[in-house]
Amino acid sequence: MKKVTKLIIVIFVVVLLFEFIAFVFKTNHNVDYKIKTKKREYAINEVYKKGKYYILITNKKNKYSFEIDNSFHKKKKIVSKIIEYKFEDTLCIYPVIKSSNNTNIICSKNGNTYHYTYYKDRLSDFVKSLQEIGYNNESWNKTSSYSTRIDTLKIYNKNINNDTYIYIYKYDGFYTINNENSDRIKLFENDNYINNLGFRLNKYYIVPNYDQKHDYKDFYIINMTNNKIKERTYKKIEISKDSYINGIIEDEAYIFDKDELKQYKIYKNGKKIKEVGNKEDGVLYYDLEFKTENAYTFRDKEIKFKTYKDYIKEIEKETSIKYIRNNQDTYYYQTKDNNVYYYNIHSKQKVLLFNKKITDFILINDTLYFISENTLYSYNTNKGLKPLAIYNELEFNYKNRIAIYTE
Length: 407
What we know:
By secondary structure, this protein is mainly beta. It has 4 helices and 32 strands. The strands form 7 sheets. An 8-stranded mixed beta sheet has the order 5-6-7-8-27-26-25-24. β25 (about 330-335) and β26 form a beta hairpin.
């Protein structure tokens, strides 16, 4: 009897161990299930891949698509309920997720899908009804007025995440912004209208001393989390004013000097610099991998590195003018009419988010930061569209004006 008991215990432990190993090493699943409301039945396709859930919800006429981070211990069938709301010929749903209050309203009309942000002015009654039964979302809160003003810059500090630090270039230095404090950093005695050689490596912003009359050998290295400034002199290398940034790959910045036909790499958070290309040996070009190109090509045309494939041609062949890679499975992109979409390659479904003309952008994790007219915005699926700062200079001079670091 004791042997049988021991055998049962051993088998039980082995089963638990097997399940634990399967859980730890599980990387994906793809399941289909259905949920009924009083009026409709919805089919749900749930894909779990690399720490994210990609959800496609459909009925006979409508499609809804969204993604959500894994906070469910890789469980299956995370959608537990669907709450509906209809106005005119638009059907909106709020998908209830198990053990989470982290989803948003999605709408469908004439085969097209819309995020809450696009229809928010029409959804106040639906939002109120959801809040009354205990559901909430940060994007449903009204946008507060700006709380801080420095010179002509207006700042919405409450809309900035507490782990986020923003720099806005201001000709003689920077405005520095986070959710608690705003300040100025003065670096230059003379105004420099274009910030063509400033860049961020990790939490450090690196910019040449634009007061130098000819070539740059002195650089400022600024810790964006505390605004501490260090000066760095590259003794053996000078970079001409006629230079530009090729790109940043794995926290290393590549700069091409058009006068000298040389390419430099700045790395180790600005502490190191070295020559990596010239007219004799060629210069480095990156398009998912490094290869060598002719230096004269880099002189005649400003060549920027590519860090993504042009998948967008398969989505909007005629209307797409730019796109922004989120990860290998999802994209943001904008069309000529300034509609901004989210696209999921699993569901092959695009979602209209909002309409704004984007002039420059930064994508960090799942949050899109962009300039539209004179305003810096952030957009996140769950937190919605929020203004962060208003600065009139952004409307006319927007290139390389914004740097953002998140911890």
